[in-house]
Amino acid sequence: MVDISRGSALGISGASELFQLLRDGAPRTRASLAQTTGLARSTIAARVDELMRLGLVTPVADAASTGGRPPSQFALNPAARIVLAADLGASHATIAVTDLAGTVLASRSEPMDIARGPETVLGWMVEAGLALVAELGRDRKELVAIGIGVPGPVEHSTGRPVNPPIMPGWDRFDVPGWVQQHLEVPVLVDNDVNIMALGERALAWPNVEHLVFVKVATGIGSGVISGGLLQRGAQGIAGDIGHVRVARGADVPCHCGNRGCLEALASGPAIARALREQGVDVQSGSDVVELVKRGDIDAIQAVRQAGRDIGEVLTACVSLVNPSVIAIGGSMARAGEHLIAGVREVVYTRSMPLATEHLAIVQSAAAANAAVLGASMLAIHHVLSPEGIDALAAR
């Protein structure tokens, strides 16, 4: 049985712990909750009443009964509160309002250079987010958290970017502190690939415990979910595969100062550079994708080779973390099966058979929405935690 008998620190008599059973959205009766927890029916009733007062659970259609009055069922009320989810990319920004189930209620995207600095970018995020809340007719008091993804390393414990290579002016900037000067709610910050992994899992693989999400765009990185939990590592840079050395590129310089990094060989700009060296008129990763879609042989072969290079690094990842799913996303994933075919070619050939027997290597199902969905999950997981429920009760 689940031990939730201890009262919460804020005096809501264990309602926050009881809520952890209800947050999956499955309807339950007072009797089933009492049976699961071992608590008295009167105790369960009091805690359910407290959660209903907060609006976090709501009665749903009655369960079937063998006779007499059917028992009432209760479940999570996703509409009770809202969160803001922000995807701040290198050259774009997206803000969305979602409910507590992660359903996007409204969103807005604009071109935005992250190099404009934190005050400018975060100022747009706050202003656009509040505008969306108002457009939905929701009270800003219903906003309970903000999740933010940024294109650089983040010290997760503080939410501060640390030495981000493409984010001038953001190093050690107190993102949560600045945002909370304008919106007094919890602010959760993580790097973009980590939140993309959360978004991909929530949308397409909710029951998968071991997943690696690989973003291939201007840079290359991965988010690792193991045992159902996002793995950030000691300093928050777990999954930084873009700067793993690949033998084929031993002499190719990388902006990090080393040579032979995966990112210097297989990112969008790297593929474009390789094609220009062959005399192909292409300037960016997006140009490469368009050539692939038109069936250009040189572009297809270059993308396929990039997939092989990525697969070489992922072979080591497969041996280390043994995922069930590798999802490939980012702007270069729009090249479709050509990139993924290169990854599969190497991973399935070089990995141990047991590790790949049930391994799926697929294109991201969440695609361009992965980051916003993941930022939403980051905020929601915090809000619906026992500590988050206690904080809501104290507001």
From TrEMBL:
<comment type="similarity">
    <text>Belongs to the ROK (NagC/XylR) family.</text>
</comment>
<dbReference type="InterPro" id="IPR049874">
    <property type="entry name" value="ROK_cs"/>
</dbReference>
<protein>
    <submittedName>
        <fullName>ROK family protein</fullName>
    </submittedName>
</protein>
<dbReference type="InterPro" id="IPR043129">
    <property type="entry name" value="ATPase_NBD"/>
</dbReference>
<dbReference type="InterPro" id="IPR036388">
    <property type="entry name" value="WH-like_DNA-bd_sf"/>
</dbReference>
<dbReference type="InterPro" id="IPR000600">
    <property type="entry name" value="ROK"/>
</dbReference>
<dbReference type="InterPro" id="IPR036390">
    <property type="entry name" value="WH_DNA-bd_sf"/>
</dbReference>
<dbReference type="Pfam" id="PF00480">
    <property type="entry name" value="ROK"/>
</dbReference>
